[in-house]
Sequence to fold (340 residues):
Amino acid sequence: MEECPNLSYVQTLAAGDTDFEQRFIQIIKEEFPDEATLYLSHIRHDEPRAAAEIVHKLKHKFNILSMEKAYAFAVEYEEQLQIGDMKHDLDFRKILDTITRYLKTI
Amino acid sequence: MNCIIIDDETAARAIVSQLCTQVPDLDVIEEFDNAIDAIKFLNQQNIDVVFLDIHMPGFTGVDFVQTLKNPPKIVLTTSDTNFAIEAYEYEAIVDYLVKPITMERFEKSVQKIKNTTVRPASKTGEATSDTGEDLYINIDRRLIKLKMNEIQLIEAKGDYIEVKTDTESYRVHNTLKKIKEKLPEKTFLQIHRSYIINFTKIIDIEDNSVLIEKNVVPISRSNRPELMRRLNLL
Fold:
């Protein structure tokens, strides 16, 4: 079953501070698409190590959105990319798509 | 306590900043998206705590820790759990927070900061051996590591200094006075208002000058007695 992103970590962190919550969501909405685009570009140009650097950043977003399984997957994928192995790209893209869809709803 | 946050990701900085707002007596003075700007800031400001991301492009958190001579207390923030053991090799690092950082864990970290005393790093002049020490110089936002024992001399040139090593020459926007504070007194000596020399690189000395490699460096009258005192004269 596909893991669903959510804002429970962000809300706990905000502790009722709605200004922070909104500001933070805005930051994620701005950073995530840029990082996802950069990831795709590195894969397209056959640059696995550069892609690994972006996966490192993206996996932090998975954590923020309480996606533990996606995070665990990204940890392994980052290591694979470091040694030039890009075979889990499609699985990783599915996670990116899930988050992209989710960010449009918040 | 005042603190700064260093992380290349805006979201990560926002999280630590938000956590800080929920802790009494912890003020975020500045945030940086790279370690080099933070080092410049720390050269001018006294800060109690640095929340530092390890994994940053170019100049990493580890490079940052190694660069600071008298670092404040440092709390590492990272997604990588496998750096923890290495982190505690540095005395300035008082805690290690794995992202995503929870409030509960952050509060424990703040307690740890308050309860930890970081011993100041020993002054360079007191080092028994200076040969292993490094000096970082800032050129075009890059920090270049120089080995102390490879520096031959430093010359003041207006608003700049020229650092001559065994292999290269670097022009740095700095003053002789400032760099002198960073150099081991045991090895380096100012022999003229425009020159600091590496004492171990002297080839010979004439009345009013020393020869270092191919450089003839003048000795000022006021600095001459100290130079003569330091020479192992027969």
Q: What stands out?
A: Residues 120-132 of chain B have pLDDT under 50 and may be disordered. The helical segments of chain B are 10-21, 35-42, 61-67, 84-87, 103-115, 176-182, 224-230.
